[in-house]
Specification:
22-stranded antiparallel barrel; globular; 5-stranded mixed β-sheet; 2 domains; Immunoglobulin-like; mainly beta
Length: 775
């Protein structure tokens, strides 16, 4: 039997086993919790049986399951600090599943701190190691760049996150490069989620329902990446009435519209839509408002479009279709032009079979991404990736325990062309398919929570199976202190193809792992091992603890090691073409790509305080990232040893209608390769008859110092923001958002021109004001 058939057999055996398991369960109560006005699922709401120890919180679908209940009469309570509590009577019988859906009404008076109770419950009932949950209200706590709150501005404050700059910056997570971070939008793979200016993402904050960001140690539900996962869910449109939001700032404008196609009925069924569009005109507006930066303006423009239609049934089942188109354009110094486009369509669904407490969810998506870079006097570069991904997941609760399993298929093709630092062309075209199956089990008993999981990933183009066991554990020492840990094996078959010697690293192409690598790899200890396949592999180990100093003050410390046993990188040592005439030359001097290894290790400390109107977030990250390329150990360009983020938000005035927030970021210098000297290249295009003494090439040659042996100066920046919210009688809300980015105009280095030695800095002081009108 072939390997894919083995995976299918494994999957269907699990399905039959767990479906049959419902026949032996005790009584169960299940259902969905939704907003009564909009029909939107409510996340992380407490649902419990009054007078008992049975209780859970709703998931990202607003779904809950309480199982292993002794037969009898009970009252089911659904409560949240944002919503009025609702009670329903239920009769529980052995081996019977009762459905109780809730439609909650918002409280007239908001008490604030709505997430504290649900967050505390999650910490005590889930492993939740190395994961941060972001919701729209969290985004607004961070000072917004240009008056436009964006999820990327929150990500930059999370532990383990490193950014290489305001312009053209990338996000690096606990020692992993951007291609090793998986970004999902409603189940669809997003290949580039961040615009070139580095302070805006492709996502509209106002339509995000929830974002789970895993910086490491994630369970077997996620595969195909070796460093991190960002799983973003968008909300459904309003099923009761037309709503919208329009906003503008010096940097861009946005519009969101939502409403019913079929209005919400008493049973909770309805059809809705949500449309979102945002665009930047920074290149034009900066020529008027920020001429002190550059008279030609800031060369960043983008447009992001997203649409979604959701069909909701009275049982809580749901089906959605969505599509997006994200574009980005940058022009540097009138000589370099970069543009990329990311577009796709997809669908997802949630189904609860009648008489069963199992939740079935799935998704299908097709997307494509293409990037082009043209530079003066250099060959053009381009990269494209297009393909599909689909998945089917099953979740079943057994008391406080939970089983989840599923299958996933991914197929994509890549087309790529660039050149290495010596100007030698590098190109590749690949087609590949991946098939994965996983099972996770959360076991909770007394003070311990265990989450063993297992994933099998099959890479068809390589004919390689990667077995990947993973484990998460939490031990509740007492009500305030919890110890936790995670470990796992991870693999991926997608690499980036960018040069570490690029002064401005804008071009970020993608391709499947090339198979024409060297046969042997010299390890850092001098031993030689065989390169059996081109898969990138990593092992994670994380240990830490959570301590509730008070109900409102929480300390979280995690130490981690990511061992990258094999990664593929552009071969900066290539000197010869890879053809039969040069087979006598060592492979590491003629292959386009080579194998490397490395290790990332560090400690993240997070101190969080939250109560009504007050939010304080302090993060310190200590990290060390090393790479070995077979010749030398070097620090990659994202090896920032020390990184501090301090965020504070304070509401004041009637109903906290005024809000002041600030963020200060300090980061030690990033590595770079220094320029050691210059030389006059010899122009030998005329062959042996060339007059070497009189030939005068137009360009200087550069002697480079050791790879990334230099360090840039320390980076630091202070951002401040103030927001005023005014509510009108007709449900209209006006938000005025004024802020200053880089308050004391710190000159953080962007790059230095190697020939002219001209220093180009990151963004200087940038005041702005934004207006948002909700209706």
């Amino acid at each position: 039997m072939s390997k894919p058939k083995h995976l299918l057999t494994f999957f269907f055996t699990l399905t039959l086993f767990f479906v049959s398991a419902t026949a032996f369960a005790q009584g169960t109560v299940k259902g969905f919790v939704k907003d009564k006005l909009t029909g939107e699922p409510l996340l992380f709401v407490n649902v419990y049986l009054e007078g008992t120890n049975h209780g859970v919180t709703t998931d990202v679908n607003g779904y809950y399951t309480i199982s292993k209940i002794t037969a009898g009469e009970y009252t089911v309570v659904s409560s949240s600090m944002d919503y009025e509590a609702l009670r329903q009577s239920v009769t529980v019988e052995n081996n019977k599943v009762r459905t109780k859906n809730f439609q909650l009404s918002k409280k007239t008076i908001q008490l604030g701190g709505a997430e504290i109770s649900a967050h505390g419950q999650e910490q005590k009932s889930q492993v939740r190691i190395s994961v941060a949950t972001i919701r729209p209200q969290d985004v607004k706590k961070i000072p917004s760049f240009g008056g436009q709150p964006d999820i990327v501005q929150v990500l930059q404050t999370l532990p383990g996150f490193i950014t290489t700059g305001d312009q053209g910056g990338q996000l690096y997570i606990r020692g992993g490069s951007p291609v090793q971070n998986k970004v999902l939008l409603d189940g669809m793979i997003i290949y580039n989620a961040f615009h070139s200016i580095g302070l805006f993402s492709v996502f509209d904050t106002d339509i995000i329902a929830n974002a789970d960001v895993y910086t490491g140690g994630f369970n077997a539900q996620y595969g195909g990446r070796i460093s991190s996962v960002m799983d973003i869910k968008t909300r459904d449109g309003n099923k009761a009435q037309l709503k919208g939001k329009v906003g503008a700032s010096p940097f861009g404008a946005k519009l969101t519209l939502e409403g019913p196609l079929k209005k919400l009925n008493d049973s909770g069924a309805g059809i809705s839509y949500v449309l979102s569009g945002k665009t930047s005109y920074l290149e034009e507006s900066s020529q008027l408002l920020y001429t002190y930066i550059d008279s030609t303006g800031l060369p960043f423009n983008f447009t992001d479009l997203y649409g979604k239609v959701s069909f909701s049934g009275s049982s809580g089942s749901k089906f959605s279709v969505f599509g997006f188109n994200f574009t980005d354009d940058v022009t540097y110094l009138n000589s370099s032009k970069l543009s990329w486009k990311n577009a796709g369509v997809g669908a997802n669904f949630v189904v609860v079979p009648a008489g069963s407490s199992m939740l079935i969810s799935g998704h299908f998506a097709n997307s494509g991404y293409k990037i082009n870079l043209s530079e003066e006097n250099l060959p053009p570069r381009f990269s494209s990736v297009k393909g599909f991904n689909l998945g089917l997941d099953f979740k079943y609760a057994i008391g406080e325990d939970e089983i989840k399993y599923g299958i996933e298929a991914i197929g994509f093709s890549t087309d790529f062309e660039t050149f290495n630092p010596l100007g030698i062309a590098v190109n590749q075209r690949e087609n590949t398919t991946e098939l994965g199956a996983f099972v996770t089990y959360k076991y909770s008993k007394g003070k311990i929570i265990l989450e063993p999981s297992f994933r099998t990933q099959y890479y068809s183009s390589l004919s390689v199976v990667s077995p990947e066991p993973r484990l998460g554990v939490k031990f509740k020492v007492n009500e305030r202190l919890r110890l936790k840990g995670a470990a796992g094996i991870y693999s991926q078959n997608l690499i980036a193809a960018n040069s570490d010697r690029d002064i401005v690293n804008l071009f970020y192409g993608f391709l499947a792992s090339p198979q024409n690598l060297q046969d042997d790899f010299v390890q850092s200890d001098g031993n030689v091992r065989e390169v059996k396949n081109p898969l990138q592999k990593a092992n994670h180990l994380i240990l830490g603890f959570e301590f509730d100093i008070t109900e409102k003050l929480n300390l979280n410390i995690e130490g981690y090691i990511k061992e990258f046993s094999q990664v593929t990188n552009t071969n900066r040592n290539k000197l010869f073409p890879d053809n039969p005439d040069y087979n006598h030359i060592p492979a590491v001097l003629r292959k386009d790509f080579i194998v490397e290894s490395g290790k990332a290790k560090g400690i993240d400390v997070v101190l969080k305080y939250e109560e009504k109107g007050t939010y304080v977030w302090f993060v310190y990250s200590l990290g060390d990232v090393d790479r070995w390329d077979g010749f030398q150990t070097y620090d990659p360009i994202f090896d920032r040893r020390h990184n501090i983020n301090f965020v504070a938000t304070q509401g004041f005035g009637k109903d906290d209608s005024w809000e002041f927030s600030g963020r200060w970021n300090l980061g030690s210098g990033l590595p770079f390769t220094q320029t050691q000297g210059f030389y006059q290249p010899i122009d030998a295009q005329g062959g042996v008859g060339t007059e070497f003494l009189s030939a005068n090439p137009n360009e200087l040659g550069i002697y480079y110092a050791g790879l990334n042996e230099g360090r840039l100066p320390t980076y630091h920046r202070l951002d401040l923001n103030i927001r005023k919210t005014t509510k009108f009688a007709n449900d209209m809300v006006l938000e005025v958002n004024a802020g200053v980015t880089n308050v004391y105009s710190r000159k953080n280095i962007f790059y230095v021109n190697r020939i002219t030695q001209e220093t180009v800095y990151q963004l200087p002081i940038l005041p702005s004001i934004g207006l948002d009108l909700s209706f």
